[in-house]
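Recap quiz, item 2
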Amino acid sequence: MSSSTPPTHDPKWRRLPEERPRQILEAAIAVFGEHGIAAAKLEEIAARAGVSKGTIYLYFPSKEDLFREVIRQVLVPRIAQVEHELTGGTAIEQIERYLRVHWHYFDRPEAASWLRLVLFELHKFPDLEQFYYDEVIALSNRVLGDVLRRGVASGELRQLDPAASVSLIKAVLLMHVIWMSSPAAKASARAPQHTIDGIVDFVLHALRPDAPAGVAAPVLP
Amino acid sequence: MSSSTPPTHDPKWRRLPEERPRQILEAAIAVFGEHGIAAAKLEEIAARAGVSKGTIYLYFPSKEDLFREVIRQVLVPRIAQVEHELTGGTAIEQIERYLRVHWHYFDRPEAASWLRLVLFELHKFPDLEQFYYDEVIALSNRVLGDVLRRGVASGELRQLDPAASVSLIKAVLLMHVIWMSSPAAKASARAPQHTIDGIVDFVLHALRPDAPAGVAAPVLP
Amino acid sequence: MSSSTPPTHDPKWRRLPEERPRQILEAAIAVFGEHGIAAAKLEEIAARAGVSKGTIYLYFPSKEDLFREVIRQVLVPRIAQVEHELTGGTAIEQIERYLRVHWHYFDRPEAASWLRLVLFELHKFPDLEQFYYDEVIALSNRVLGDVLRRGVASGELRQLDPAASVSLIKAVLLMHVIWMSSPAAKASARAPQHTIDGIVDFVLHALRPDAPAGVAAPVLP
Amino acid sequence: MSSSTPPTHDPKWRRLPEERPRQILEAAIAVFGEHGIAAAKLEEIAARAGVSKGTIYLYFPSKEDLFREVIRQVLVPRIAQVEHELTGGTAIEQIERYLRVHWHYFDRPEAASWLRLVLFELHKFPDLEQFYYDEVIALSNRVLGDVLRRGVASGELRQLDPAASVSLIKAVLLMHVIWMSSPAAKASARAPQHTIDGIVDFVLHALRPDAPAGVAAPVLP
DNA sequence: CATGAATGAGGCTTCATTCAT
DNA sequence: CATGAATGAAGCCTCATTCAT
């Protein structure tokens, strides 16, 4: 039946073929993120991408390869991109902006899915994990690390190990992204806005010098 | 073949039957932790428990039920247990001890697996997640929250939201447990001892009052 | 192996896909009939339908559902269809024709299988059983019952309960269908032609008035 | 717990060991009858017999052998026994008694199960089927056949083939036993008493001479 | 290019059978 | 004798992958 009649798409133009791989990758992030690699079904990815199961194999040799491309082509660039959102201002201001920009960036339903992917499934693919660390973590270390280094140098921040501090800052941020996505947590938790305020307060306190000077420095007025 | 050769069981002793459920649960934690629910194979769990596939079904009705029991009977008590390790001393001392005890506790190969389980698979079982939050998170909030509350009251700690701070502290701790388990991270990362020192330093700075007094207090000399 | 040798499909034509469900249902009747539900293997049904095991699941959600559809889509219509084969003639003639048509209809290897199915396995599915009674038994009661009623009214048949007599007639017929299919019975039994003659004779005698002349002998007032 | 306390049986005496096989056979009839061979579970048979699964294997080498013994030791004697219940009286009286005794005999919940067993599962065991035919059917043919023969000789019954008539009579009887056991049938059916009355009436009419008065009416010339 | 019907390997689950106690 | 824990073969079912159209 469907073979004799043309498919019911808009007759004027077809989605550009070069769009297909991206549609599939986008659908794949969602499904992999929700179910994990093993439980993700190509059927569902295909359905969400609006293509048939067979079409996926025109662009990706296997489910595992599809996952690899999701990480490489979508997740790494996506997570890496926000790392650049640090422009002018003091180190403290830049750090706060870093936290708030990321929080805002991750405050969507899919965000926790991405994180789950890299935190939970990546370790099964050591090469991918290495790739991710090289591309994203190293970048973080550099970008945010530079901010910290300058802050330390200028006395805005206390003496600390910039590389280690980057991990500490991101740990606070990312774990709360995960937690905010859990329905159980949501019930008992504060609003997202309240949460990020708490994170900013916590992190800045952790980074600032113990005694700025003679006078107390009230935070979060 | 098996009829002609004697079974290869240890002739010296037989495993006590009442041990079976626990053996299976222990094997299941490991396998679930390594592969996730979907990719975990009962065959492997059985092999690791030293029993046959069918034996699992003498004690657990299904793979999913096995997972539920792993969470209920093993993980929740295990994770909850360490929450009690807070005894005398100042608030600051208690918090530091809390961090170090947990770090030591989680510093084994399986620990990251457990965390992966609760952080990544639990959300598929809302009732279990609720159970976990009630049993473990609520406990943390109470135990560690009380320490924070007393620290705030005594002036040892700055004004802060105890419940929110508990999350922040645990976020730093747990995310580093996960990260420490990744081979890629290990390559570039500091030693565990260095890491926990950094965590303690970071957290305590975040919690202490802004300006202790006139004099500067250099940290991490 | 299968990759190096060409598949052994008939090169001349491919089975039409829209035929698949029916092929499977036909194979399923045979296998269910021979072995019963529990002992029937999907592997065998698939083989007999000329498809693979997985294909069955493209059309039927489970083995039990396949059985249900066998009953609904194939057996009930098939058994019900022959009920209509009653046309003109006296009541006696119609009954005889009813018996001989059914006998002829059931005189094939599969027939006993169908009967075994409905007589032996249906009671495990009360809803199906009700469905079968509504669709087939009620039909019999009506069609054959009407013949009997007219025969009674016209004096061709003796006074009797039409509904009950339908059961009695069918009992004789169906049980002999079952018996004829057993190899052991075959050895000792008469030929099919002889058997149906005996059935016709027996039934007609049972239905005819006692005393064509003289005194009436009302039975079952 | 149960291992430390003696089982709760009568302390004075234990069931005689020689009772065990019979208990198991009785339980097996019930379970085989309800579920068929393939779907019958030894676990259930053991439970109903009040023994453990392993005990069955002390007396029967396998499930199939257990079924064989059920047929041989229990069903065949049980079904055969009632064949003897024919004593004095006219042929008509004997036949009526035969029908009513069997009807009464089969008017218990298990009866339909037995019949289902021999009618539906026996054909998978040709040797058993042969055995059953030799032991039960041949007996019927002889016992009931003799009654018919004498009835024919005495003119009480019309000219008919005694062997074939035995089948016809039993067909009516047995099929109604099966039908009476179905819940769906029960809803719409007459009471058992009514049913057997109808059967008796039907059968006797079928067997009696055509024309009690004047002219003979040869059938099946 | 795209489809989706078809495949079959592989995993979960059941249960007849065994065997150490 | 009796038990019931343990086994593992076998069956149902899923789903990644293929391929004719």
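Chain B is about 70% helix and 0% strand.
Residues 2, 17, 20, 51-55, 58 of chain B lie near DNA strand F (CB under 10 Å from a C1').
End of item.
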